[in-house]
Write a structure and sequence with these properties.
This protein is mostly helical. Helix content is about 60%, strand content about 5%.
Length: about 270
């Protein structure tokens, strides 16, 4: 009886030892990984805790004023500052020029660009991170936007500019000979309409008609704003990986069956 009880106690002790060993190994690995991140960028200064924690950066992203946070950081800590364990921010035009130069050694970061995918797992020219694949996509598209294969390129752009002027004169600007007051106009919104109509006219052969309707006809701009807001929040909360979950990713992403927004554009 005593020997059986001793064996049970030893077995229980072994199970506890294995459990604590596994937990300790995981914690040790987590601490070692975080210390490795901290050490790699130790020469760059930043707000307190950014060397070991994402809290400061998450607060900046979720605030909706990240640009102000980043600006304050670079003013206080220099043109290259640390904002997270493995993230730096820069306000140096010279460094940006070097990073974006032809044959630059820097590459696009998947954690950032893949968050802008329309469809999970499918890249477009804006989200492609492999330089060779990105260059190949750009070469395929270049001819259509350079005028070589599109003889009506400039005419299409001119037509939409004329449409913008017509919209301003007919709906917002007071006639020259009258004493009326011009109606206030959100120029930023009209330029977005112009951009979409030019892109659709050049790329698809027919404008979306935003300028003619003076509205976001297919809710592309609305979808863009909502998508960026959701992407920003999910990034700040660290849950962007949800879009990579096979079934869930498709359910929360635009679909070709959508009647409006980016789904309609994809179709």
């Amino acid at each position: 009886m005593e020997s059986d009880s001793l064996l049970v106690s030893l077995a229980s002790l072994n199970h506890r030892l294995v459990y604590f060993t596994l937990v300790g190994a995981v914690l040790l690995w987590a601490v070692a990984a975080r210390l490795s991140q901290f050490w790699r960028l130790r020469k760059f200064r930043g707000p307190f805790g950014t060397g070991v924690s994402w809290l400061w950066h998450s607060r900046a992203v979720l605030s909706g004023d990240a640009h102000r946070w980043y600006g304050d950081v670079t003013e206080k800590y220099g043109p290259i500052a640390r904002v997270a364990p493995d993230h730096l921010i820069t306000s140096s035009p010279e460094l940006w020029a070097y990073i974006n130069a032809v044959r630059s050694p820097y590459t696009r970061a998947p954690w950032y660009y893949h968050r802008s995918r329309f469809e999970p797992g499918k890249d477009n020219v804006f989200t492609e991170c492999d330089n060779d694949s990105h260059d190949a996509r750009r070469k395929k598209m270049a001819a259509g936007y350079s005028g070589k294969e599109n003889p009506t390129l400039e005419a299409s752009i001119d037509t939409q500019i004329v449409e913008l002027i017509r919209l301003i004169r007919s709906k917002y600007a007071a006639p020259t000979a009258s004493h009326g007051v011009s109606k206030p106009m959100d120029l930023a919104a009209k330029i977005q309409y112009l951009t979409l109509d030019v892109i659709s006219a050049v790329g698809l052969g027919q404008p979306f008609g935003d300028l003619q309707a003076d509205a976001d006809v297919n809710d592309y701009l609305k979808s863009l704003e909502e998508g960026l807001t959701i992407g920003n929040i999910s990034w700040g909360l660290g849950i962007t990986w949800l879009r990579d979950v096979p079934l869930l990713g498709k359910a929360i992403s635009p679909s070709e069956k959508d009647e409006r927004g980016f789904g309609k554009m994809m179709a």
